[in-house]
Structure formats: C-alpha cells, structure tokens
Records
---
Amino acid sequence: DIQMTQSPSTLSASIGDRVTITCRASQSISTWLAWYQQKPGKSPKLLIYEASSLQSGVPSRFSGSGSGTEFTLTISSLQPDDVASYYCQQYNRLWTFGQGTKVEIK
Amino acid sequence: QVQLVESGGGVVQPGRSLRLSCAASGFSFSKYGMHWVRQAPGKGLEWVAVIYNDGNNEYYADSVKGRFTISRDNSKNTIHLQMNSLRAEDTAVYYCARDRTNGGNVHDDWGQGTLVTVSS
C-alpha cells in the first residue's frame, strides 16, 4: 500500500501570506497526485490533479508542484475563503489520501 | 450541471447490512467511473471503492474488501454500495464522487454525502 504523509497538520497564517503544504508518498507515484479542499460541513472539492494541473474554476492563487515522492500545494496569497482542510491523494495505485492539513487565519 | 445525490444512510446494528445509492444527473453517466469515499466523524477522507464506466472493473480498499460491493446501473444513472457485516468503524459520511475519466483518475465532482452510523 502507498502511504501519504502531509505536513503540517495545522497551519495558522495571516491574510495575504504565502502558504505551503507538503505531501510525501511512501514510494514513487510519478505525478499521480491530487489536492482537495474541504470547508467545514461541506463536500471536498478538487483543486489540483496530476500534481500541477489546476481544475477548472479554481483560483490561480492555488498551485501544485512535485513529482516522485515529494509534492507541495501553495496558496500564493491566503484569503479568508481559503479557511479549510486540505488533502493530498495519490492515484498511482488505487487511491490513498493524506491525513489532511487544517488552514486557519491568524 | 453535475448532480450527485446519495441516499440510504441511517443507523444500523453491527453485523447487519445497508445499501447506499447515488443518483447522477447532468452528464453522460455511462462514460465515467464512479467512486465511494467516506469520512468518519472528525476524521480525514478514506477512499472506499471504484467502479469503471462499463461496470467491468471494480476495486476496493482493504478495509472493506469482501464486505462491500459496488455496482452500477447505466440505464438508471445510479450506483450502489452494498455494505454487509457492518462494524462500528464503518460509521462515516459516505460520499459518491465522479471520476474525472472512465475510472482510474481523480474525483472531480462530489455528492453531499449520507451518514451511516453503526451502533447497537
């Protein structure tokens, strides 16, 4: 099984800050990596697929990078609407989510 | 637009069965794979199962393999999740999600979820 590890578990930042979340895979997954956003009480929403492709309708302040086992999600300028939990997911072999990162406003 | 509506959740005793359904609309259902993803209260997301667009391929998480069965009816734009031998650890909100392609990709649309509580 492929394990996904995210860091940090919780992140507190100010409006306008650049925010980075890291996701590590237990083995190489090429670029078969997605990022999802889940706001409290809501269903998850796809942000990024294939490590760096922005899903239609997602603001350009979100970006993804990485390949192999190390990946990052970056929010270039944190907005109040970005308060949420963020999950990475590998889909190289079946599907596995990371444990999530909760983003809060400082 | 894409709409996914889950139903069938509720309270069930350990060891019993439950069948979830997901009604899809707003897209060409038979062209897309479909997934079930669950989330235990206060916890993260866990992928459960996938069925490819033609219904000929299905895969399961180890935690549900042999107990859960995913199926689809392309004539009714519906998928199901038959859950047998339920355990307390199966308590979760169950989401139906569309695959971005025919079955081996990410989840680009999600339903609102249905809550399953396994308790005596």
---
Amino acid sequence: QSALTQPASVSGSPGQSITISCTGTSSDVGGYNYVSWYRQHPGKAPKLMVYDVSSRPSGVSNRFSGSKSGNTASLTISGLQAEDEADYYCSSYTSSNTLLFGGGTKLTVL
Amino acid sequence: QVQLVESGGGLVKPGGSLRLSCAASGFTFSDYYMSWIRQAPGKGLEWISYISSSGSSIYYADSLKGRFTISRDNAKNSLYLQMNSLRVEDTAVYYCVGMGLWFGDSWGHGTMVTVSS
C-alpha cells in the first residue's frame, strides 16, 4: 500500500498560518474519520497533535486544527512559532485494518 | 504519567532474530490497544503492527506479515515484538505506541535496531 501523499516541505514566517495536506484514497482518508497528525522534532519521538480528523489532545495548542474534504486531510497551524519547526506526519486507518502514514512534511519557520 | 520504555534493540546480522520489549507504566495497560511503529534513519514513520487490549485482535502491515509477531502480557504490563529473518532494510528506531483506537496517543523514546553483517 502506497504512503499517503504530503508535500515534502512548507514554510512560513512567525505569526503566519500554514496548511499541510495529506492525500489518500476512498479506502483510507476518504473512507474513515480516523486521520491523525504528528509533530516530530529532530531526535525526538513523534507527538500527537490532532486525531480523528479534527480533535485535539489535551494540552495541544488551539493553533493546531485539522480538517478533511474528500480524500484529502489538512493540518493548519496558525500564529506560527519557532517551536513549530519540525517534521509533520499524517496517518489514516485503512479498509485493510492497517494504519498508513504520509511521507512527512518538513516545516521551516523563516 | 504515561511511560513506555522500549528495550532489546541492538546489532544483528541479516537473517537473525531479535525480540523487542516495551515496559508500560502510569496507566492501565490492559485497557489500551498498542502498536509498534518504526522509522528508518532519515526516513518517515512506518506502522508495523497493532494489538487489541486483550490481545484477541492483531493486525500487521502486509509487507511484514510472517516475519514479525506482536504479543502482550497484561499481567506484566508489557508489549513485545518478535522479529525473525531480519533484513538490512529493517534497520530503524522501533517505537512502542499506546493507541487511542487508530491514533498514537503515547510514544516511547524508541530502541534502535541495526541489521548489518
């Protein structure tokens, strides 16, 4: 099964908003509301930022929001901060009872 | 607080076997679904396997089915991954992950597995 498609990189200035897309198929992203997003700083374990498309875990800033339209999910980060510079991964449940990740997006805060 | 500590990683020759362990604390382990997820050096995340809270339901990534086996011991608050017929491309950091159904809620720090002759 091919990985979900994410842009390799995105960038933005402090205070701006950016959106990272995650494109799959009707057998994964489009078929279920089980899309999640993770942030990973270099050398660290990933951290859950959004789950079930648009829910935020306790303690995660409301600057992070998720959405989905058709086979594409999106993560929007508003009010960019230096600490947001990291790799971001999306994942989705699939019709094969598996979990599929995107290839990852490197976010640079200019 | 939730703590997941992986162990058992190391250097192994191609074709060899390794058993990873994950010790859980700070939460009711027997209530949680668990997964193993790995990350090759400089690469993205790859889901390996998922086990239900009781161990009655188990799922694997198609590419790994048959070589890797996930298991758990709720009495010992532990998760395991038996890895056989290891290949160079299995070299990665292996994460133990507490699952909230189909998302990774809590992550360990990972254990490095290197497959090399």
